[in-house]
Design brief:
Blueprint lengths: L4 H12 L3 H20 L4 H18 L9 H28 L10 H14 L4 H12 L4 H8 L3 H22 L1
């Protein structure tokens, strides 16, 4: 069970006053919260590095927390900014892997980049929603064909597409 807001605020206040034991306890609680926060936002192979990055940022910025304010929003802001930085780094890395090779004008570079963007967005969707969108909206299968392939009823395929597209739209609007 994770600590509540008041407990975390007390731990942070004690840590700011030099209590090393409370600071270790605070970081352990923050680590648990961050793991839960990022579990659905990044692939498992990237989770530990991102959590450690945020813990380091919390350590560096601990003096900026004001004990008259809530702790979780302060932590969430740091976590969100580090997540965005992480996504940018991952995107740049993926683009670098493609390289700057001389490519014919009729290449599929734009399609590859679009596909990479979709994959990054699909991470935020439940698997069934991502699969339904993939089959119907990208591969062009009918609802009936997607239903057969996924084992979902036709109405569930439609619901998953609707909900998935709604969530993707919200993510894109939020990023603007």
């Amino acid at each position: 069970m994770m600590a509540d807001e008041a407990s975390l605020a007390q731990m942070m206040t004690a840590a700011q006053n030099g209590d090393a034991a409370m600071y270790r306890a605070l970081l352990a609680e923050v680590q648990l919260w961050l793991e839960r926060y990022y579990r659905r936002r990044v692939p498992p192979s990237q989770l530990d590095d991102l959590v450690q990055d945020v813990l380091l940022a919390v350590h560096k910025k601990r003096a900026t927390w004001d004990n008259r304010r809530a702790f979780y929003p302060w932590l969430a802001a740091i976590a969100r900014y580090r997540w965005v930085d992480h996504l940018r780094k991952v995107y740049r890395s993926a683009e670098d892997e493609l390289g700057d090779h001389d490519v014919a004008e009729d290449s599929e570079e734009e399609a590859v980049m679009a596909r990479m963007s979709l994959e990054r967005l699909f991470v935020h969707l439940p698997d069934k929603q991502a699969k339904a969108i993939e089959l119907v909206k990208i591969e062009g299968l009918s609802i009936a064909e997607a239903s057969q392939r996924t084992g979902q009823s036709e109405s569930l395929v439609k619901v998953n597409i609707h909900r998935g597209l709604k969530k993707l739209s919200a993510l894109v609007e939020k990023a603007e």
